[in-house]
Known about the structure:
By secondary structure, the chain is mainly α. The protein has three domains: 3-53; 65-167, DNA polymerase, domain 1 (Orthogonal Bundle); 183-376, hpI Integrase, Chain A (Orthogonal Bundle). It has 14 helices and eight strands. Strands 1-2-3 form a three-stranded antiparallel beta sheet, with helices on one face. Strands 4-5-8 form a three-stranded antiparallel beta sheet, with no helix packed on it. Strands 6-7 form a two-stranded antiparallel ribbon. β2 (12-19) and β3 (28-35) form a beta hairpin. It is elongated and about 95 Å long. The termini are far apart.
Amino acid sequence: MRGSIQKTGKNRWRLVFDLDRGYDGKRRQKVIRFKGTKTAAETEMRMLLSEYENGGFVEPSQLTVGEFLETWLEHITHSVSDATLIRYEAICRNHIVPSLGKAKLQKLHPLDVQKVYSTWMNEGNKRNTLDNFGLSNRTVAYHHRVFRQALRQAVQWKLLTINPLDAVKPPRVAKTEVNFLDKTETAILLSFLKGKADHPIILLAVTTGMRRGEVLGLRWCDVHLDAKGKNGKPDPHLRVTQSMTCVKGRAIPKEPKTASSRRRISLPSMTVEALYKHRAEQAAVRLQFGLGRDPNDLLFTDYKGDPIIPSTLSRRFSRTIKSLDIPPISIHGLRHSHITQLLMEGVPIKVVSERAGHSSIVMTLDKYGHVVPDMQQNAAEVIDAQLREALAEHADI
């Protein structure tokens, strides 16, 4: 690595050093203007050369935050799902760019971002007429994660030396207690839906803990109602291999949420019976209306044989819940109900975590830890009974 210092005026210097050759093999140089003494210029040159050799040198740039985010969004197009990309685009273009888009990327200061977060929470985004009220802590915290992720890429691309978002504190998001149905309330719901089109969908959700999109994305090829285990006993189960999402008003299948979301779930007999019946009825309806074989092989479709849009199912479920005298939960609450009921019945946390598709039991405990204290008294009673029985047997020894 070579560099030179050229005097251009009183205490003014031209620092020149070689960069790595470009992709075309041509020589490249970096020129930096410096003001100060010769000794200071020499010190600056040594520092620049050291930074460049150690990979810490970042070329000065006039790139704005808005320009960078456009490049970043284009970069992640093929590495995230369509739904995620649309969500990230909305965050960038409706909030981050109107507030910080004109700022120079390399001049972005943590305090500037912190002030913007406060404005969002107190007033919304005044540059966007769609926002006439403050954003919630949860929304701003999510925007922060997306913005921080984008600037982490800027560091990797050597557009920034450090990520300014690392020094920004997002708003605190209070944990909300999960609403769920108990066994009696679940029975009321299933009894009401008996004979209705949504019964097998809701039954599957509440007996497996699958997410809404996972239920709607389930294919018959992933359901094994006649399977047998190694011991020859019935072992009906399904495998979660895809999920249904909505992109621009259309239901589109996508990869599961995480690697752990790809999982095997054993099915209870009542669900197996319902799915046998549903499969026969579905085949009869498709034959009646001349729909032929479903190319998507889905368990659940709308009246035209098309995939069900997740939000459509949620609206129907919301109307159902409002008509019943049970807690007002969302369809995602059925997943919470399944997990909570299993934990309250003493099913091992590891089994529940695997069934839910959580990445670890830590995640399960973090979200459903409120259920465990209710089990503490049961544990105390069990150990008390066991020891009293043992002590009674050995009282004469």
